[in-house]
Design a protein that fits this description.
heterodimer; A: 91 residues; mainly alpha; two-stranded antiparallel ribbon; 3 helices; 2 strands; 32% helix; 4% strand; B: alpha/beta; Amidase signature (AS) enzymes; 13% strand
Amino acid sequence: MNEKFEIEKLVQLARLSLTEDEKNQLEGDLLSILGYIDKLETLDTSNIEPTSQALSLKNVFREDEPGEKAESCIELAPAHYKDHYEAPKII
Amino acid sequence: MHRLTIEQAVEGLRAGKFSSVELTRAIYDRIDQVEESVSAYIHLTREIAQNQAQEADRLIAQGEKKPLLGVPVALKDLICAQGTRTTCGSKILNDFVSPYDATVVRKLKEAGAVLIGKTNMDEFGMGSSTENSWHAISKNPWSLERTPGGSSGGSAVAVSANECIAALGSDTGGSIRQPASFCGITGLKPTYGRVSRFGLIAYASSLDQIGPMAKTVADTAILLNVICGKDPKDSTSADIAVPNFSQALRKDLKGMKVGLPREYFTTGLDPEVEESVRRSAKTLESLGMEIVEVSLPHLEYAVACYYIVACAEASANLSRYDGVKYGYRSEHSDTLMEMYSNTREEGFGKEVKRRILLGTFVLSSGYYDAYYLKGQKVRTLIKNDFENAFKQCDVIASPTAPAPAFKFNEKTGDPLQMYLSDIYTISANLAGIPGMSIPCGQSASGLPIGLQLMARQFDEETLLRVGHQYQQNTDHHLKSPPL
């Protein structure tokens, strides 16, 4: 196990299910990429504001009016019963 | 006929030299001839194109003058067009049929365009070579043993190999500009917010932009005018006046300044690329521009910053692929949780999983400040770099990519090396500024080299003007691949 992350935990958080080979390979890839990303630590950003989007966007408000009907989309589901999505049991 | 530009096609159609049905047939004939060699398309829309071409001919006969009336165009396969499959280059969306049109598609239709097909791409836009497509590997028309770049590789190949008159791509870290550079065409990533993203399948929402890929800057200006503008369906689209980009092309360049960022011309840059870019700057100088040296000191941090921000956003955006609402569902699951993870395991390719995991990590409890917040702060530094540089110049010129097109499998074993092929393009997405790649030379082995021009936010006029004046005085954009 490496010092930075538990690959099992990440895989679970990301809702993936990797084979052992994939896990080993991706763990190695992530370590290498994170090693590269660590170069950001050399920058002093203590007085810098974060940027989450590049424009000075303001919130956009509008009246809440009904749009297209949901039926047009339910047909896209891998499984549905009338206008309900079907999925395997939860527990 | 397949070699025509938008300008030439529109002129020929209006003058009655040929019909849209004939032009569309010529494009499909060309596709039948070369597609097997280059694999630009994921699927073709022959029936839609036939109907649109017939309708265009009817309107042309009535004297209708729309900007793209009867002109065959291609769409990157992550842009929704009603009734067509939109696969995003992924198994997980292989059978997904768009229930609506993206805003750019609605605008293309209103402008009279004919939809030829949906082009190949790296899965969800994640890649720089189109090798990450689930469907096929697109080949560079200039050298079939090399990649066309990516992720909009299919669109670049289709334009370069004359399998369409022009195309749309999307660009999150260079995905329009780098393949445009590799394939010897013109590609523009507009300012963030210039073009609506409604109906664009999301990769990293604060960076994604749709943009034109075409044979000339003049064509790029026509396409940009068609697709841009405020859209109530995309709250991040900017409510800002849209100029007539085609008119802006005609102005000369006297008194303008072009900045060469010194950090872009250091180690890692191919000498042939450097020579072509410096020669292009001299050409711009001969057209009346003054060359100034500028500094973008945080360039070396851009790739690291990008992979934090983009992967974080991707891990959130791609959580919607859960096998419930649409797309692929694994059949080997007893419980909901198993179905989620098996669907995503079977439906996503390796690069997508890599980026989802990286994004999940940088957003996870205990690491958020050290990675995601740090990345957002470095993004501010990169944005400030450009604001400072544009105090000294009107446009920045640089290489689009560090080297010409690379060979298949050259970088697939080392994700970091693949990421670094986008080092010159990524900053424009982080800063939200427009960037354009235009052909500016060839390597000794005959591969195209791209010049990247970048401008202030919402100053596409300057980019297009400089690019057009450059193309009026050079012939790099007129060269065609030996196919």
